[in-house]
């Protein structure tokens, strides 16, 4: 006991139960503090008895000279493990060495999107809704702002609900205070897409149209760019594709293919592009799910729906809509309903 007290006085900062090491790792000028807690991605555990055997004699350690940078923490761990063994408490102690995670930070995907941000514009619209109770009058005007992006042919895409019942539409480019008057070429209520154009040649100077990418797969990284509420400059949010299925489009009350992502989509993001990790546009942000039990559920119009809208306008000079199969269907999950039309309990498939 006397030796133990003596050791404690000589080394007041050492504690027998403190057997973890905190390491700091830096990634491209961004420092991340990594500890041996549950948040560490990769942890390697080494028994203290083995660590003490690796230390060698005091003379051999002196002959090595001053430890290089990165070995000082290892040397401190060896001294700490030997101190615990001398006190008789190191039989089952473990020395934990944290290994930095090799996961590429998400902001690297954003770097690939930066060259395409100049093609993202802010849309200002003045709306005047009709009064269906008094058709000879109109409701009071109101203004809104949303996002859009430039495509080929001197055209701009945004959401249909962003320019619905429009009286005046203006566009503003990134880094500019000038607002350019826009003309609405087509509105697709079903797919919630609208096409705009600007006659002023100055608007098209120094910008390149976005290129469309393939339909992303589940867990593919996506980056949403736009002008949501909370500020005047461009905003970037990142996430992944979490679901792909037929969705109910809130604006058109139709069901079309849609992508669910976990990137934040707020008011004002509507009409903004969603990029993949190559910087290509893979969709248009158009709606999000708001509920007290829901967080970060946003929806994107995929490129297949966008391509149909663009080709429809180029072919017909206007938006004509999506084809309908003309078939009504009903789920046959109720056993009484199945028996009423003569279906057996194991009968599956399509029946007419």
Automatic annotation (TrEMBL):
Residue ranges, compositional bias (Basic and acidic residues): 68-86
InterPro entries: Peptidase_S1_PA, Peptidase_S1_PA_chymotrypsin, Peptidase_S1C
Keyword Cell cycle: no
Organism domain of life: Eukaryota
Pfam families: Trypsin_2
GO molecular function: serine-type endopeptidase activity
Residue stretches of biased makeup (Polar residues): 10-30, 47-60
Annotated segments matching region Disordered: 1-91
Gene3D superfamilies assigned to the protein according to its UniProt record, in alphabetical order: Trypsin-like serine proteases
Biased composition (Low complexity): 31-46
Gene Ontology biological-process annotations: proteolysis
Keywords tagged on the record: Hydrolase, Protease, Serine protease
Family per similarity comment: Belongs to the peptidase S1C family.
Record-linked PANTHER family: PROTEASE DO-LIKE 9 (PTHR45980:SF18), PTHR45980
UniProt-recorded name of the protein: Protease Do-like 9
Lineage of the organism: Eukaryota, Viridiplantae, Streptophyta, Embryophyta, Tracheophyta
